[in-house]
């Protein structure tokens, strides 16, 4: 048996069809985001799903270790669903979750560049007496 219900998007309240497999995850352990708000909470792990008849993508954000472990059976309640992206790599630079290690590395490099640019800017300022 599964828990199938309409979960409101955490941002706008749009009802999204959700399937929680085998009652292994409670409803409070996830939040859902509609396609307009997929990246609203970048500090949360999330799986982006697509499927037949869905039209747009849905993000399911597991809030607990249990929900993350059951992420494969917690998906939109429509036919032919498949995950298209998983954001589960925590970036030490910005605190967000990235899809790949390359994105997290790029974020760190951007941050280092920003630090260097700021240091250069500060050195070029005239001293105020």
Can you put this structure into words, describing what you see?
The protein has one domain (3-124). Strand 1 (3-8) and strand 2 (15-20) form a beta hairpin. The model has no long low-confidence stretch (mean pLDDT 80). The strands form three sheets. The protein has a four-stranded antiparallel beta sheet. It has helices at residues 65-69, 101-124; strands at residues 3-8, 15-20, 30-33, 46-50, 58-62, 74-76, 82-87, 89-90, 97-98. It is α+β, with helices and mostly antiparallel strands and 129 residues long. Helix content is 22%, strand content 30%.
Provide a count of the helices: 2
Which value, in Å, is the CA radius of gyration? 19 Å
> What is the averaged pLDDT score?
80
- Strand residue content: 25-35%
| Strand order in the largest sheet | 3-5-4-7
Keywords summarizing the entry:
four-stranded antiparallel β-sheet, alpha+beta, 2 helices, 129 residues
Summarize this entry quickly.
The protein is an alpha+beta fold. It contains two helices and nine strands, in the order E-E-E-E-E-H-E-E-E-E-H.
Secondary structure topology:
Blueprint: E1 3-8, E2 15-20, E3 30-33, E4 46-50, E5 58-62, H1 65-69, E6 74-76, E7 82-87, E8 89-90, E9 97-98, H2 101-124
Antiparallel strand pairs: 1-2, 2-6, 3-5, 4-5, 4-7, 8-9
